[in-house]
Specification:
By secondary structure, this protein is an alpha+beta fold. It has ten helices and seven strands. The longest helix is centred in the middle third of the chain and has 32 residues. The chain starts with a helix and ends in a 22-residue tail after the last strand.
């Protein structure tokens, strides 16, 4: 009878287990009270979740309890495709601009990478252009030294400038015989350089009206055509690379206020467009044969 009384009640280990559970609960409560919440990271996670699931605007017509709970829990009537302005998103996601249009935001690291890539592309273009200029300069070195031809360049294009004194007689579009070997060397140099070629004629501001040319427009265009005809004569250069333009006195290099400056403005320019540019000419624009060419 005494043995039965001793075994009545809860086992002895239960008290130890209860004490242990109480201690563990107090320990985790203390951990939670000491913890600090990262508000920024929490908002980023919340914004990502909102972007992923969206906020429903058009709700079912049935006014059920679930529908009411959904309406009460909605933060704003923002459509599914548009994030809320208050949402703090990750650096690579779009942020709603004040005007209502999404704006792409980049982190500083991504911006630095994009800028480095842009600078590398510019440096590559400059190096390609430098090599093209060196080819042309070596082919026309004698003419450059004599002042008959000038070569200018920038990041994209190369301009070969032919002065009137060496190439054309005053008021005509007929090439001088002594200048034809220069055009032959220029033709060989252009065959080794890629890119579309715009040939543009320019004059000074002195008006001209003859039986052959009614104005400086016709004279400038006819001189450009004469140069193109000579460059295409052997067939080494494809017709599709060329475009002809006549500018008259519309684009002077220097003011037309002296005889020396007017002589500089009377010229034919060949602009070699960088091959990476999208715009490419489709055909040569020629004047009627009555205008005249070499």
């Amino acid at each position: 009878m005494s043995e039965k009384k001793a075994s009545a009640g809860a086992p002895a280990w239960v008290m130890t287990f209860a004490d242990l559970m109480s201690l563990l609960m107090c320990f985790f409560v203390l951990l939670l009270s000491f913890a600090e919440m990262d508000i920024i990271k929490f908002k980023q996670v919340a914004g990502s979740m909102k972007m992923a699931f969206g906020v429903q605007q058009d709700v079912p017509s049935a006014e059920s309890e679930q529908t009411q709970e959904f309406l009460e829990g909605r933060e704003s009537p923002t459509p599914l495709a548009q994030p809320s302005k208050e949402t703090v998103e990750s650096p690579t996601e779009s942020i709603q601009a004040p005007s209502g249009s999404p704006v792409k935001s980049e982190s500083p690291e991504m911006a630095e990478i994009m800028e480095a890539l842009r600078q590398a592309e510019i440096a590559e273009q400059e190096e390609i252009n430098r090599q093209r200029v060196m080819k042309l300069t070596s082919s026309l070195q004698d003419e450059i030294n004599k002042g008959m031809v000038e070569i200018d360049s920038d990041t994209d294009d190369i301009v070969i400038r032919i002065g009137e004194k060496a190439s054309f007689a005053s008021g005509t579009s007929d090439l001088r015989t002594g200048f034809l070997p220069t055009l032959q060397r220029l033709q060989a140099a252009l065959a080794d350089v890629d890119g579309a070629i715009t040939v543009a004629g320019h004059t000074d501001n002195q008006p001209i009206r003859t039986a052959k040319f009614r104005s400086n427009w016709e004279l400038s265009a006819s001189r450009a055509v004469s140069v193109v005809h000579e460059l295409l004569k052997t067939g080494k250069l494809p017709l599709e690379r060329f475009v002809v333009e006549g500018h008259a006195d519309g684009k002077p290099l220097v003011p037309n206020d002296s005889a020396e400056n007017r002589a500089k403005n009377r010229r034919v320019e060949l602009t070699i467009v960088h091959p990476g540019k999208d715009a490419q000419p489709e055909k040569v624009i020629e004047l009627p044969s009555a205008v005249g060419s070499s």
